[in-house]
Amino acid sequence: MKNPYKLAQRAADELRDESGFDHYDIAIILGSGWKEGAGALGTPTSEVSTSSLSGFVAPTVAGHSGKIMSITLGDRRIALVAGRVHLYEGNSADQVVHPVRTAIAAGATKIVLTNAAGGIDPSWGPGTVVVIKDHLNLTGTSPLEGAAPPKGYGSRFVDLTDLYSARLRTAVRRAVPDLHEGVYCGFRGPHYETPAEIVMARAMGASLAGMSTVLEAIAARHLGAEVLGLSLVSNHAAGVTAGHLNHLEVLEAGQNAAASLGALLTRVVPVL
User: Fold this and answer.
1) What is the CATH number of the domain that holds 92?
2) By CB distance 3.0 to 4.6 Å, which of 50, 180, 183, 263 could disulfide with 66?
3) What is the pLDDT of residues 94-126, one digit of tens each?
4) Of 19, 64, 222, 238, which one is the catalytic site residue?
5) Catalytic option among 103, 207, 235, 236
């Protein structure tokens, strides 16, 4: 992808054509477990396979299917993006953030990034939802690496001081006062972290650990969108308890929490 911004614009045009929506206001990237909950927001008026859109790569992880569902909530048009891809699948940073860049090119000014994460804070058991207030990027890369963005786009030296919008976080806390806030640590994966790495992340201020979200957040902020991050704690991170980790645990946590995630989204999305 020599010009990932041009490719995202092409994909956005294709998405608008196939979905029948001339623009979007909000895009929600659906992490593990969140797709089932998102059904509570309404019945999609269209489902577009990402395989038909320029620049999208197929996900290889169980629980991720490649499609974009379009819904209307009040007077706002929302893209529900299922099929997140990750660095550990052999993708570049540009490929990982391509869905976010496409949604913004299609008009979205607010990006909601959801994920399943390991809980570093021992008081947060599986099923807890945490609003991301900041992150640590330990992936070793950035979607702004390489050639400078073309003319018409912001500088690659983007300010991340307010990466996770304080305005959106305040609105969400007013709507759902009992939600926790935490710092998400993004690792590259695909292996789970060692207990020592979790101790390191905790010492640096992290309360959640995962393998997504951070690159998408950077790309969205670079393009001027407001970002909201929501993590479902699917398991305790390595070493927090004596248990061992596996991906089926992550999927089961999402399935078990689907109803509560749906109820949460119906309260959160209208206030964005």
Assistant:
1) 3.40.50.1580
2) 50
3) 999 999 999 999 999 999 999 999 999 999 988
4) 64
5) 235
Q: Is 88 annotated as catalytic? A: yes
Active site includes 89? Answer: yes
Assign 254 a pLDDT band (cuts: 50, 70, 90). Answer: low
2-39 pLDDT tens trace: 799 999 999 999 999 999 999 999 999 998 778 889 99
Domain that holds residue 8: 4-271
What is the C-alpha separation between 142 and 139, in angstroms, rounded? 8
Phi and psi dihedrals of 31, rounded to 5? -80, 180
- Is 211 a catalytic site residue? yes
How would DSSP label each residue in 56-81?
-----STT---EEEEEEETTEEEEEE
Cα–Cα distance, 205 to 182 (Å, whole number): 9
Q: Is 247 a known active-site residue?
A: yes
Q: Which residue in the list 69, 82, 105, 116 is annotated as catalytic? A: 116
51 catalytically annotated: no
pLDDT of residue 63: 58
Distance between first and last Cα of the chain: 32
Catalytic status, residue 193: no
Has residue 188 got a pLDDT over 70?
Answer: yes
Q: Is 212 a catalytic residue?
A: yes
Structural domain count of the chain: 1
Is residue 64 predicted with pLDDT exceeding 80?
no
Q: Does the annotation mark 192 as catalytic?
A: no
Find all residues with CB under 8 Å of 159, minimum gap 6, and list them. Answer: none
